[in-house]
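Page 37, continued from 36.
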């Protein structure tokens, strides 16, 4: 898949390299791998989904079989097809490169960021909806379109909350690992349905939810928020950035992302890949970009039956989310959408930044403060999630049909 660096980005790259010696673009081999990654999927999980969810077994029975295998182990499920056994064998193998200590350090960074991780990550994701390859699958699946936008965000938040619990992603049978495998299967199912849809142009876009696009989400959960959240008082050291990059690498492995070739080993390499994505945008999402972007923040608007403190709480989060989008979406992209101003949200975010910075400094001198900061950030995030999700269930449903 051919990717072309825009002249504006090329000039900026040349100027920065001339002044600082730092090259904003990745090495040619990495750039080539990034292009090839747009046509690469997840063959092991794809065989399982094709045989079960999209095969004679059907989605309902496949879901039951997957739940049973996660509960008792695939070796104790006689009906498990060979494709399921192959999927579990790969999923349950911990790669040699995994450093458990680094994984835990990275998870601790997520626990400190808490609610802000989800908000800044979502704002950054919205900034990518200029691209048809990202907007078409989301629009067709309906995940982030219209009234379902908030629920889909809450579903993603559940995965974030589970995987950053202490020790969770490396503990066999944990809820974090269960949800990760379901996310992987769901992505594969959506990929197959979108690829077969007449609105998808494989010659232009490659493969839906491709390896390169999945890798971008890993950078959006590591280096991108680490750098961006400095403005809001979160002080993430270079060592912590490397740890959260390693943590996201393992998360990528769990959800079917190939993280052995082009995945960055350093913060600088991660910045180069993020810049390369921005430099090679096609800006071809058309009307789908506004559909996705303009539907998200308003989905936090309290319903007509919400009154009193609950209404105030909902409005507070509406302003917060609008503030995050104003701060973390590129201004020239944001101007193309009709969005709430976000000014009140910015006042809130910048107003509390000095307090966050003070705690961030204190935790470096006191392990007790560090533990308290992680615990309190998680508790606030969990309370917000529980309040919004109510009695609804996050299903990570691989049997979900496209909405059109």
């Amino acid at each position: 898949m051919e990717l072309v660096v825009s002249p504006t980005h090329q000039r900026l790259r040349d100027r920065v390299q001339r002044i600082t010696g730092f090259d904003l673009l990745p090495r040619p081999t990495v750039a080539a791998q990034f292009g090839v990654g747009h046509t690469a999927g997840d063959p092991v999980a794809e065989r399982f989904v094709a045989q079960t969810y999209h095969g004679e077994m059907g989605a309902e029975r496949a879901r039951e079989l997957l739940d049973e295998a996660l509960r008792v182990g695939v070796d104790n499920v006689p009906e498990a097809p060979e494709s399921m056994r192959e999927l579990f064998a790969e999923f349950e193998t911990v790669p040699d490169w995994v450093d458990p200590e680094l994984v835990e350090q990275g998870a601790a960074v997520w626990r400190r960021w808490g609610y802000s991780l989800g908000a800044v990550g979502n704002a950054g994701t919205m900034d990518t909806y200029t691209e048809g390859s990202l907007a078409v699958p989301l629009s067709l699946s309906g995940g982030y379109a219209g009234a379902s936008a908030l629920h889909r965000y809450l579903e993603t938040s559940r995965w974030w909350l589970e995987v950053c619990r202490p020790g969770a992603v490396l503990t066999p049978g944990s809820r974090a690992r269960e949800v990760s495998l379901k996310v992987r299967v769901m992505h594969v199912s959506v990929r197959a349905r979108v690829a077969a849809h007449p609105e998808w142009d494989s010659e232009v876009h490659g493969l839906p939810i491709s390896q390169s696009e999945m890798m971008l989400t890993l950078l959006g959960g590591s280096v991108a928020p680490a750098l961006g959240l400095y403005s809001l008082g979160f002080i993430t050291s270079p060592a912590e950035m490397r740890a959260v990059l390693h943590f996201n690498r393992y998360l990528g492995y769990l959800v079917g992302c190939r993280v052995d070739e082009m995945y960055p080993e350093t913060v600088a390499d991660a910045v180069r890949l993020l810049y390369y994505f921005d430099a090679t945008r096609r800006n071809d999402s058309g009307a789908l970009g506004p559909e996705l972007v303009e539907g998200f923040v308003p989905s936090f608007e309290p319903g007509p039956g919400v009154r009193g403190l609950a209404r105030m709480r909902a409005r507070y989060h509406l302003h917060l989310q609008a503030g995050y989008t104003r701060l973390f979406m590129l201004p020239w992209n944001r101007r193309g959408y009709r969005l709430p101003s976000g000014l009140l949200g910015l006042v809130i975010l910048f107003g509390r930044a000095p307090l966050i910075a003070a705690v961030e400094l204190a935790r470096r001198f006191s392990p007790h403060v560090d533990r308290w900061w992680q615990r309190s950030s998680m508790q606030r995030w969990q309370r917000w999630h529980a309040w919004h999700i109510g009695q609804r269930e996050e299903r990570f449903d691989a049997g979900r049909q496209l909405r059109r």
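The two ends are 27 Å apart (CA to CA). Flag for discussion at group meeting. Residues 7-37+94-389 form one domain.
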